[in-house]
Amino acid sequence: MATTLPMAGTTAQINLAGLAKNDYRGAPTTLCQGCGHNSIANQIISALFEMNVVPENVVKFSGIGCSSKSPTYFLNRSFGFNGLHGRMPSVATGALFGDQFLKGIGVSGDGDSASIGMGQFKHIVRRNVNMVYIIENNGVYGLTKGQFSATAEVGLQLKKQGTNQYMPVDICMEALASNATFVARSFAGNPKQVKELLKAALSHNGLAVLDIVSPCVTFNNQTSAYHSYTWGKDHEEPLHDITYVAPRNEIILEEEMKAGEVREVTMHDGSVVILKNLDKDYDPTSRFEALRVMEEAERNNWLVTGLLYVDTDKPSLTEMYDLVDTPLNRLGDADLRPTPDMIDKVNALMF
Amino acid sequence: MASKVVNDFSIIVGTVNGSGSSTANNTILRALFKMGIPVSGKNLFPSNIQGLPTWYTIRVSKDGFTARRDEQEIVVAMNPASFARDLASVVPGGAFFYADDIKQPVTRTDIAVYPMPVKQIVKSDPNIPSDYRDLVGNMVYVGVLAQMLGIDINTIQAALNFHFKGKQKPIAMNFNTVKAAAEWAKANLEKKDPFYVEPMNKTEGMIMADGNTAAAIGSIFGGIQFAAWYPITPASSLAESLNEYLPELRKREDGKHTYAVVQAEDELAAIGMAIGAGWSGLRSMTSTSGPGLSLMTEFAGLAYYTEIPIVVWDVQRIGPSTGLPTRTSQGDLTFVNFMGHGDTQQIILLPGNVNECFEFGWRAFDVAEHMQTPVFVLSDLDMGMNQWMSKPFEYPKTPMDRGKIIWEKDLEELKGNWGRYLDKDGDGIPYRTVPGNKSPLSAYFTRGTGHDEYAKYSEEAPVWHRNMERLKKKYETAKQYVPKPVLHSLKGATVGIIGFGSTEAAILEAQHQLAAEHNIKADFLRVRAVPFTKEVEAFIKQYDEVFIVEMDRDGQLNQLLTIEYPEYAMRLKSVAFGDGMPASAKWVREGILAKHGTVKPSAAKKAAKTAAAAKPRKEAKPKKVAAKTKPAGKTSKGKK
Ligand SMILES: Cc1ncc(C[n+]2csc(CCOP(=O)(O)OP(=O)(O)O)c2C)c(N)n1
Ligand code: SF4
Ligand SMILES: [Mg+2]
User: CA A84, CA B166: separation in Å to the nearest integer?
Assistant: First the structure.
């Protein structure tokens, strides 16, 4: 397929994979200017570039919505599947069996994952499929022009829709309740944190849920709304500063680390996520703590962001199946079709 | 007593659901099969785990007719709740066996009546633990029938040995009861009915299996790599059979797996996973029945439009809605044909027997990957869950057809001159790459939205139109690749019958009866795929009347044929009936007789004249074989 041309003005820096940042880009965005989703796509590009990921080793997935359009805006050189509304999880689950060495990156919306796709969302979480599952959470249905989504807060008033009467769904809570092995929350207006969490998520072996509040500038950006930029900026309560350190890049770690202030989480590939606590010694390996912090944030009207929970010990879905070392989609007749003598054995097994 | 009737009657056993009678019923069936007598067995069970009345019917037919019959010569009543109904169902001159603890009046004098002291026989064996007595009690009617009909006791032991996989304890316990019951019958019952079985050699070389097991094993020989499913009667045993046979048939020295079977959270997820796996290059399938199929509709349309190979087995039951979940039907045909919104045309394979369930198990993957599209295989409860005699499964003669899939080297050779939806070969089938391909030229973006030849998003009208026309061309190409129909012809036939699927046995028997008793000679064409191949049109052309026989209310095959061949619509007569019961020759025969002669031949001839490009009869007709009306391994197939 056609490769993206370098964009004017970008530095032609080459990473350890021998690629320039442009190799990670996609088609130009068709979303509204200022949409939070765009800034997330940019951070995905940066994170992958900085992590030296080979695009051919990543598969993109999405459902339907403005957010779900995003996979076309990054990683032109990766396969992508834009499926059905709410059904990204099942497609990704099956697709990643094709080659268990690939990493999935899914982008979904709050409507896509917390309304129509809530069932599939919770099941992909409990199956621990090896992918980063991003929910670009704006509290509305952007693509269908501004109806309430399941994450909209009670009392939110929107043009044409009136006032939302129902209690919201908290995506991180749902993920934790479904035994997620990685749960993080961020805010599109905090690109540095988004990027660092993306890197941590990409290093996680299993399913990493990233709930990113991503304001819809067109349909839900009143200053009072939870999913708006202004509210987000005012109420954001980072759990800790995070610096992601890839195994090849440890010098930065030396510089950033301050004794006594850090907690390290070792990812499956040997890389380390460092959590810099702001005001308490937060332990992201404790589900109990994660739930407590979220409950506390809810009561205090905080947007608690950061890595809420991680468990690095659980096998991912394809690991549970103990597959052969060759990607399944490269196997041929010899591996797949039983030998001719087996047919007599089978017939003998019938009566 | 009337003269002896040998190897030609039906047995029905009425029991309580969940009382463990299936071991007993299968034992009788398998014993008769081992004696070389053509048999079929059908479980007519309610949607219930325990307590409701249930029946099992066995057809014994020296002529090899295995369809269910409406008449029952031998009735076994084990259930007080259905006793009166069972008694009434015996044909005059028939035999009635019943558990003598059922204290209800036996009012008929036109049949032979045999009480059986079930409880007493079981109690007299001290080796049977008290909690096993009810279960083993069913073996009493096995023993009594064995004695009274002449079933070889050794074949019963062989059947039990098979059923209990050689485990001595249950075999001995059950077999002892059979023997005790047979001895009791010998000493205490006087034969008053004319029905006997005698050994034959008509099942030699045959196997006995159900369609779901056959489909699962067929899929394994087709190199299945991924299956996702959600439990539903009557499809569950297909996926469960995958789990049962895969570890053995695909065992590797390193103990690792070349496949994955996932029980999904629902059918939506099941087909979604299957599509994901098919997209990434795996031989992928799901299996379900009507309600699950309904849920899969949006995905079916997506897979059609995005050209992803998957196999969907639909083991049909009768609906709409939950309907009668344990009863059979062919009522999903039109739904599947159009499955998806907008313009969709799905490929459907229609196995007609257990052997074809095996064959289509592997072949469906070839068709799906070759055509890059979903393939739906329509079986039904009767074929899927009941035991049928069958020719042994045959090893696939051709290697796996993976279709137009290209890898790194191919892309290098093409120098990037590749578009996912580019019709390079003029057959409508494009080339595809799959994730994991390391070439920077390999990736493309799959989307349900409008796309051009290079998989780029497009809302341009001509682009949309062009793509849909190519998909239509691809569907035309499929006509050369799907299984051709099977012809059962009769010398001097003047009318045609078209059917599909599990009705084959009933139609073959009806074909025989119509010729023998009504002097109506019919050729019978069993369709095995949609789109219809040219043999179907050629067949229809030959007759003034073609009866379209199927198990549904609305004549769905008839509808599809009418759409495909409007010029012949006048001569198509729908013989459609759906009540959940497996087809019998009687309803086929009576359905045909009711419609026979309702169109003047002249009118049909006229219609035929106006039909475009009428080919001469000889050339158009599929290969004819010598007149044959009996099944049992002698079917003639159209060229593959
Ligand atoms: C089955 C189905 N129902 C409805 C729609 C229409 N639809 C498209 S996007 C969307 C909502 C998307 O909301 P969200 O996931 O929050 O994405 P956003 O646009 O807000 O990023 C809906 C309802 C659809 N595409 N498919
Ligand atoms: S409508 Fe909202 S969510 Fe959609 S692109 Fe515009 S700003 Fe983004
Ligand atoms: Mg939204």
Answer: 50
Q: Is residue B113 within 8 Å of B106, Cβ to Cβ? A: yes
| β-sheet bridge partners, residue A189 | none
Interval B261-296: pLDDT, tens:
999 999 999 999 999 999 999 999 999 999 999 999
Q: How many CB atoms lie within 10 A of CB B88?
A: 10
Alpha carbon distance B200, B202 (integer Å): 6
Subunit contact B207:A350, Cβ cutoff 8 A: yes
Say if CB A181 and CB A310 are below 8 A apart: yes
Residue with tokens 């494009």: B430
Task: Report the residue of B207, B261, B273 to disrupt the A interface, i.e. the one with the largest count of A CBs within 10 Å.
Answer: B273
Which is nearest to B325 in space by CA: B292, B357, B356, B351?
B292
Q: Which residues lie at CB < 5 A from ion ligand 3?
A: A 109-111, 138
| Spatial contact of B450 and B457, defined as CB atoms under 8 Å apart | yes
pLDDT level of residue A226 (50, 70, 90 thresholds): confident
Helix, strand, coil shares of chain B as percentages rounded to 5?
Answer: 40, 20, 40
Residue of B nearest to A126 (CA): B265
Beta-bridge mates of residue B488: B524
Question: How many pairs of residues across A and B have Cβ atoms under 8 Å apart?
Answer: 227
Going by C-alpha positions, the residue among B237, B233, B253 that lies closest to residue B245 is B237
* pTM score: 0.92
Q: What pLDDT sits at residue B584? A: 96
How far is Cα of residue B195 from the mean position of the Cα atoms in its chain? 30
Place of tokens 């795929």: B529
Show the domains of chain B with their CATH numbers. Answer: 5-196 (3.40.920.10), 209-390 (3.40.50.970), 408-480 (no CATH), 486-613 (3.40.50.920)
CB A87 within 8 A of CB A63: yes
For residue A334, list chain B residues with Cβ-Cβ distance below 8 A.
Answer: none
Q: Is the CB of A301 under 6 A from ligand 1?
A: no
- Spatial neighbors of B176 by CB under 8 A, at least 6 apart, are B125, B127
Angle formed at CA A152 by CA A149 and CA A156, multiple of 5 degrees? 120
- Among residues A101, A89, A173, the alpha carbon closest in space to that of A128 is found at A89
What chain A holds in terms of domains, given with CATH numbers, is 2-330 (3.40.50.970)
Our CA dihedral for B90, B91, B97, B100, rounded to 10 degrees, sits at: 50
DSSP-H helix ranges across B280-388 = 290-295, 297-306, 333-337, 354-371, 381-385
**Both tokens assigned to B124:** 């007299």
CA neighbor of B35 nearest in space, from B185, B213, B157: B157
- Give residue B453's pLDDT band: very low, low, confident or very high (50, 70, 90): very high
Crossing angle between the packed helical segments B354-371 and B211-221, to the nearest 10 degrees: 40
ipTM for this model: 0.91
| Ligand number with the minimum distance to the CA of A112 | 1
pLDDT band at A156 (very low <50, low <70, confident <90, very high): confident
Nearest to A46 by CA among A27, A70, A77, A20: A20
> How confident is the model over B171-212, as pLDDT tens digits?
999 999 999 999 999 999 999 999 999 999 999 999 999 999
Proportion of chain A in helix, strand, coil states, percent, rounded to 5? 35, 20, 40
Residues 41-100 of A with CB under 8 A from B: 55-56, 59-60, 71-72, 76-84, 87, 89-99
Alpha helices by DSSP H, listed for B46-167, are 83-89, 118-123, 133-145, 153-163
User: Is B272's CB within 8 Å of A351's CB?
Assistant: no
- Residue type at B562 in one-letter notation: T
Determine the Cα–Cα distance for residues A55 and A26; give it in Å rounded to an integer: 11
CB B374 within 8 Å of CB B347? yes
Ligand nearest to the CA of A221: 2
The pairing of beta strand B90-99 with beta strand B112-116 = parallel
